[in-house]
Protein 1
Amino acid sequence: MSATLPLLDASDALRLIEASFVPRPAEEVSLTDALGRVLAETIVPAHPVPPFDNAAMDGYAVRVADLPGDLRVVGESAAGPVALARVGAGEALRVMTGAAVPPGADAVVQQEWTQTLSDASVRVERSVAPGHNIRPAGGDLAAGVPALHPGAEFRPQEIGLLASVGRVSVRVAPRLRAAVLVTGNELSDAGAPLLPGMIHDSNGPLLAALLADGQLYELLQRFDENLAAESRACGCRLCGAVLHSARYRRKPRGFGILGFLFQAQRLQAAQAIQVTGDHG
């Protein structure tokens, strides 16, 4: 390799590699397959979450103006679809956590602050402010306001958010793919007999494990002529840096058939580095 080549800064080498990549299109996956994936669309709720005012605790839906005092119990509401009576002056409705707050009520008093007088009456022992123990409609997510943006990584909480707005699938960026090509005349695959002057390849399994641990999926461990067509079909991209010496200047086997463009440069980080990128 000619010593007259200009020094290439590592950041410039990275830009050179990135410039060769062609983005692959986003894909639609179910929520059950979205964990660890990267969002490729903006999530805008079509309805508020929660979609209605609901009770944050078991207790009684009341009018703040009637407190404290003895109130007539006009019904009961559990979580789920139900037709609710309006709460009028001097009245209360028994509610369970998650139940819709009935019309006319502006607070929910937890049952610990009440005393049951009979099946039809309850005593509320203290005053509360409007909105007490009520989760308002849209308190978590407002309709029409973006809730998640492209680039968000899906954790369990993001999947729960999508389910809360009624989504069953989502568009995500394609999984990253990587290939490890190990070079060296002295290398022998694990399990193969060692000839004089040979050593077992340990870097290949090590790099593959590091890639997998970093959530790079669908790893192809080794390219060869018989894998070229398959690698192109799956849209594989590859970048790498290969140390060169006076004794070893060959391209790693399989690179030429994959259409890689080789650019010989000298990096400041090493004496002689060959930077490669897929331009196919």
Protein 2
Amino acid sequence: MSADKEMTIWEHLMELAVRLRRVLVVSVIVFLLTLMPTPQHFSNPAQFLAGFFVTGNFTTLSYDVFYRYIIKPALHMTDVNVMLISGDVFTPFNALLYVSFYFTVLVIVPYLVYEIWAYVKPALYPHEIRAVKKYLVFGVLLFYLGNLYGLGLISRYFLRFLIDISSVLPGVTPIFNIGSVIDTVIQIALWSGVFFEAPIVVAILSELCMINPWSLASYRPVIYAISLIIIAIFTPDATLVSVFLTFIPFAVLLEVGIAYSKKIVRKCPDYAYMARGRR
């Protein structure tokens, strides 16, 4: 562990509270910025304020970007005319907030990782600091890559599948609730970002000599079965389309992590014992 002065439990909790408060303040600021109006409202601030607080004639820039570049292209992948409805009374307003919340998460992730790292770093040994520090940037990049994959591929083909199914059923018109569509797309994107962290977790544990990559590889069927169950639980899709589109890159990245882990553990004291499981 570091040579810094040992802190009491209360001091640790106080430091944690300070860091969480910083994250909260930054999150609120970013969230408010994501509520900026679309450009057509910039020239008339009075109309913007009246629309936000009185008339409801208001659209955020974040929602406009989300709809224009994510929802709309997915809906236009087929020739079927799809209708989006507001659904419940508060659904349109909740959709605006949910999109703003999602963009807020994307923006603050690097700062959140920094604050978590700054909090736990003093409690780590030097070799643990080196093991974790080298993968922080890659972890954040993989999280963003997973979100891009979820937004650009999984969500589009998932929505296309649902549209095609509803269009071929006799007497059925594709009418979707905008709140449900946005909720589904954002959940798929976020969970894709989480599952893309698989090689980072394997690499860090390998740096700490806490896992045996050959033993891990021998449990592939169990790991993949459990992963499919977890993805099915957290991915809002009963058709299994998004489940397999999420599982495939997860499996590939896990295999990359295992292959890289076999090189990392060569420096571990019990490498000879680990390598006995090599096929």
Protein 3
Amino acid sequence: MKIGIIGTDSSHAIAFSERLMNKGHQIFAYRGGSSIELSSTRIEKISGQLSENGVPFIGSLQELAQICDAFIITSVDASQHFEQFAQLSAAKKPIFIDKPVAQNYEQALAIIELANKQGIPVMSCSALRFAEEIELAKSERNIEAVDIITPLPMLGDLDYFYYGIHAVEMISALKGTGIEDVAVMSNEQQHFITLTFKDGTVSTIRGYLQHRNSFQFVTHTHQQSEWYEISEGNVQFYDYLIDAIEQFFILRESPINPEETLQIIRVLEQMTKTAGKGY
């Protein structure tokens, strides 16, 4: 399969392309750009690494759309996702959008609506959704609540879209849709977020702004609580994500309900607005 990687401002462009090439797929790349300093300064280096790996670069999305069978948008700058998706949409080929699907709910909804209108298979998520520990926890029945302990670095003030999305995605993977209320408390070291579901259960996120590199979470059922840790340096979830993306490209059907994807973006927006009131 010929797969196009869009956006070389992310280390995921390398992580994903190497795994796909190892599975026998042919990779093409489009550099893209970024308005985010952290990622824009990485474009040259990551593009160079891709070239060293034998990945050819294509000068336009239109040409890439003609060459490839499917696409992965890896641009860190989520403000570009809708425009990149729109330019690829005419080809009506499967598109995976690396997290977050868009920079806000309005653009996320526009992507889903365009995909539905034109019959374009679309999938978007954090790789943490496919962590082995999440899959193991999902085998538990009747999870009532989830508590996440997570790194929470930010690209800007109250930027939950960069890393906060991992925690929300993990809760969503374990609990599904139905979040109706969000509350945020914070200090200089951490942010504490509560997510209240329609069934009255409450899940939490404790995000540390610095000095944390691993993810831990606790699941609660009526009978017991279970502790899990996704240790620092363990990126096996990339392998599982690539397997899921590959199946998505073949079957042209996402394993993730788009309503769940939209819920995640809506919750991230609510977190930002709620936290902003306290500043």
